[in-house]
Design a protein that fits this description.
This protein has 65 residues and is mainly β. It is 0% helix and 26% strand. A four-stranded antiparallel sheet has the order 1-2-3-4, with no helix packed on it. It starts with a strand and ends in a 23-residue tail after the last strand.
């Protein structure tokens, strides 16, 4: 069973839609989905550092235990 939780105030990195990102977990893996454009990103992978924008921050969402 997939558990879904919307993330308030988050905007999609693909389409820029606000409040359309949901964090999904099925017990084995965690990912984010945009319900507006369908973008899917795996949250289990380590974030990749990108030196193109000094103001950009990487956010990692982890489930509560």
């Amino acid at each position: 069973m997939v558990k879904r939780q919307f993330i308030a105030g988050a905007s999609c990195p693909g389409c820029g839609a606000m409040d359309r990102i949901q964090r999904c977990s099925d017990g084995d893996s965690t990912w984010m989905e945009c319900v507006a454009c369908g973008l899917v990103r795996d949250l289990d992978q380590q974030p990749v550092a990108d030196a193109t924008d000094a103001n950009e921050q990487t956010v990692t969402l982890k489930p509560r235990r």
